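Re: the pair you flagged

First of the two:
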Amino acid sequence: MIVLLAQIIPMNPSGCGECESRVVALNAAIPDFAARKSTPASPIHVIDLHSVFDPAAFTSGSPDTSDGVHPTPAGAQKMTDAWYAALIGLDLL
């Protein structure tokens, strides 16, 4: 079974100055985790959803998020495009 593991999208809610730095730290740990847990029978591939957004612009009221946390339809489309590209790149579609 192939496992696809996504990195977290930016998080920039008002009143949480450390949220994005925590997301960056978690995302930095995900590739190592995936490499350690991946097996030939069940390979883990990391999908970078964070880099499809500009973290500095991922703020309340931007086109990609209404609250600095959850994607808008435009933000969700960027995520969809990243997933689709990953699936194509892995020859899974």
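Second of the two:
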Amino acid sequence: ADAGYDTHELFRYLGEEGIEPAVLVRKDAKIRDNPVRDNVVRQIRRGKKKWKEVVEYGKRWYIESFFSAFKRWFGEYVISRKFENVKKELVFKVGIINTLIIAEMV
């Protein structure tokens, strides 16, 4: 994600969930009291190009292409109202896409 997503709250959440961040920090980023974000700041200071390779930063287009195709096939909205059913609906739709990919139909 680009520097627009560089918030301490996001980095705290990613750390709590055990997710390695691939969020570009702002150019003037300071090391403070957020260990996960501070680690990213240090890595980028050592070498932004190397950091991008390690976290595969340049693959954003792939994800955006996937969501674009997903929206073309299924629309921009879910039918379900209850959160549990929304999750089930999305898992079902992703399962359809995965089946098509495995069958090489996409």
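The radius of gyration is 18 Å.

-B.
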